[in-house]
Automatic annotation (TrEMBL):
Belongs to the mitochondrial carrier (TC 2.A.29) family. PROSITE patterns: SOLCAR. GO terms for cellular component: mitochondrial inner membrane. It comes from the Eukaryota. GO terms for biological process: transmembrane transport. Keywords: Membrane, Mitochondrion, Mitochondrion inner membrane, Repeat, Transmembrane, Transmembrane helix, Transport. This is Mitochondrial carrier protein. InterPro entries: MCP (IPR002067), MCP_dom_sf (IPR023395), MCP_transmembrane (IPR018108). Its main location: mitochondrion. It is found in: Mitochondrion inner membrane. Solcar repeats lie at residues 1-58, 74-162, 177-278. It is a multi-pass membrane protein. Gene3D superfamilies: Mitochondrial carrier domain.
């Protein structure tokens, strides 16, 4: 939905899109790029959580030194900063895999050239478009990941702290929240983060398609021009998207993305903490 040609709309909604992909590409079409996504998400999540803990410790130490209060805790704004650092590091480390995942997902049977898989896509992009092509859309990703990951961590941790401190609501027992309550906190964090950062995600995905001459379904400038629309940069991509398709185009695909992201963020946060409990690791995100 983020990258389909506005002059040749194949589906206008989530259910219609799922039905179209099922009808034209079968069950496997719904999972295109999933292998690359799984290969990307493992190091991405590991680096993100590790970076957040390290950034939190460093920022908290500096904050305590500045205030002279050894018992000072991270404020929501400082958590936002730690989360932003973690997001930038994790995203940058795995960005080439995200770029080829986007192309693997978008290609269809009518694409003149087919990527056979993640490594074939990486080598082909390198050979045909050069190393810089693997980082197309990196800038809007960096800008988008600051509110996205930053708000995820900040909202999740702040909500948990607030619920624990306000025991009259009955959500916490012995300074612990139930798995269900933590899932709800994670869902709220995912909703806020992805909604704020979503336009940058659309622009990132469109910039990733630039230069791919064999793409079968990418945004075009007008009905007569069948060549993919070129962007000179992030601002140009924003301007052309809004001019050709309106402001609403910046939120294309928001509904299916919410259905995916909100439970994903919630499960990721809670699983991370539960696994650390099982492994006997004492320091947790909230500590």
């Amino acid at each position: 939905m983020q990258v389909q040609n506005p002059h040749s709309i194949k589906y206008n909604g989530t259910v219609q899109g799922l039905k179209y992909i099922w009808r034209t590409e079968g069950f496997r079409g719904l999972f295109k790029g999933n292998g690359t996504n799984c290969a990307r998400i493992v190091p991405n999540s590991a680096v993100k959580f590790f970076s957040y803990e390290q950034a939190s410790k460093g920022i908290l130490y500096l904050y305590q030194q500045q205030t002279g209060n050894e018992d000072a805790q991270l404020t929501p704004l400082l958590r936002l900063g730690a989360g932003a650092c973690a997001g930038i590091i994790a995203m940058s480390a795995t960005y080439p895999m995200d770029m080829v995942r986007g192309r693997l997902t978008v290609q269809t049977d009518s694409s003149p050239f087919q990527y056979r898989g993640m490594f074939h896509a990486l080598s082909t992009v390198l050979r045909q478009e050069g190393p810089r092509a693997l980082y197309k859309g990196w800038l809007p990703s960096v800008i988008g990941v600051i509110p996205y990951v930053g708000l995820n961590f900040a909202v999740y941790e702040s909500l948990k702290d607030w619920l624990i401190k306000n025991k009259q609501f009955g959500f916490a027992e012995d300074s612990e929240l139930s798995v269900t309550t933590r899932l709800a906190c994670g869902a709220a964090a995912g909703t806020v983060g992805q909604t704020v950062a979503y336009p940058l995600d659309v622009i990132r995905r469109r910039m990733q398609m630039v230069g791919w001459k064999d793409a079968a379904s990418v945004v075009t400038g007008d009905g007569r021009n069948k060549a993919p629309l070129e962007y000179t940069g992030m601002i140009d991509a924003f301007r052309k998207t809004v001019r050709h398709e309106g402001f609403g185009a910046l939120y294309k695909g928001l509904v299916p993305n919410s259905v995916k992201v909100v439970p994903s963020i919630a499960i990721a946060f809670v699983t991370y903490e539960v696994v650390k409990d099982i492994l006997g690791v004492e320091i947790r995100i909230s500590d």
